[in-house]
Amino acid sequence: MMKELLATVLPFGSGNTHPTFFGWVQGTGNVAALAAELVGATMNSNCGGRNHGAVYVERDVINWCREAFGFPATASGVLVTGTSQATVIALATARHAALGGESRRAGLVGSPRLTVYASDQAHSSVVKAAELIGIGSDGVRLVSSFPETGTMDVAALEDAIRRDRASGCLPFCVVGTAGSVDIGAFDDLQALAEYCRASRLWFHVDGAFGAWLKIAGAPWNELVAGIELADSVACDFHKWMFVQYDCALVLIRDESLHRATFAARPAYLAAQTAGVGGGEPWYCDYGVDLSRAFRAIKVWATLRAYGAPALGEIIARNCELAKLMESCVASSTELVMSAPVGSNICCFSVDPTFVGGPTIAERLNVDCVIAMQISGAAVFSTTRMNGGVVVRAAITNHRTSQADVINAVDQVRKYANQYRQSSTS
Ligand SMILES: *Cc1c(COP(=O)(O)O)cnc(C)c1O
Q: Which residues of the chain, if any, have pLDDT below 70?
């Protein structure tokens, strides 16, 4: 069986462990977590609750996260599959805060229309979470962002909330984005936190990858100033903390609200005062899952083996590599930047003036990305920007070097050059 696995499965990954994988926002995994997973799989712990070692490892990891994000020691947290699921948990808790405990029985019956606010750069998982908790995508207000920076327009947010309140809606939550998928934009978390506190709104931060700038030192950590004021934070370990899939975190400032939203303990799950059935509180009371994997061991091993300062340095280096990519693009004759680099994401395009127009440039962007994925030269992905499809790189990769970045951009330049030569010959 092992021989077959090594020959027929192992070689066929998508490539995200490779230094020139820049597509979407994908993590690399690391060796310490690989070794830890062997231990975890051997233990085969169910981390829904009870009193055993794995639960204490998860508590250790969550304690570290609380401190890293500047949350109080009384805040609660739970590890989940991804930021998508973490967002559902955070928004469900926010809904519970707005409607009270009665809503667990009555659902949304009799309540005004709940509305949640996020910038137009917000991730699709915010809308999905709103759909799942019964608010519907009609209850999501995508507030405009400033074109250059992608940062939410707080005045427009305040206007939208005022209008909704006047028309009988119940605004209950604002989602700040810390690292948008398209350009790595950061909302002004400090301003949003202050506004939410004054307006009695839940402030959630989607920091899937960007939240980790918190440990990257200056100037990068300034992008997430104010995250410590949030009511909840969702972020991934499997992106910019280099931990194997899947693993994410939701942190909730108010532990009792968090537990009140999810706790459900029938007789067969009753707490014991001692034995394996002890160990309160149980993680199943803080999320959807009862049976839960020992995800914490991967994070614990990553933190122990490398240390948070080194991980923070890699994160900062990834941002500097995105800046390097920007300068390679900007100094080339074949390519143009599509948006300025603010953190670790670089979006660019074949220069329309170099290849004979925007339609051709757009087609070349797509064709080049596909050709490079197939050849294995590098993996970029694409997105839409300024009305067209552009090439996009998100660098969350501790294996990437400066040479990798320079070579990958050179490949795109070469592609544009080959097109120009073939079209003029
Ligand atoms: C990836 C991402 C998500 C979704 O996280 P998953 O772990 O894939 O569920 C949400 N928000 C942002 C900004 C992301 O980059």
A: 425
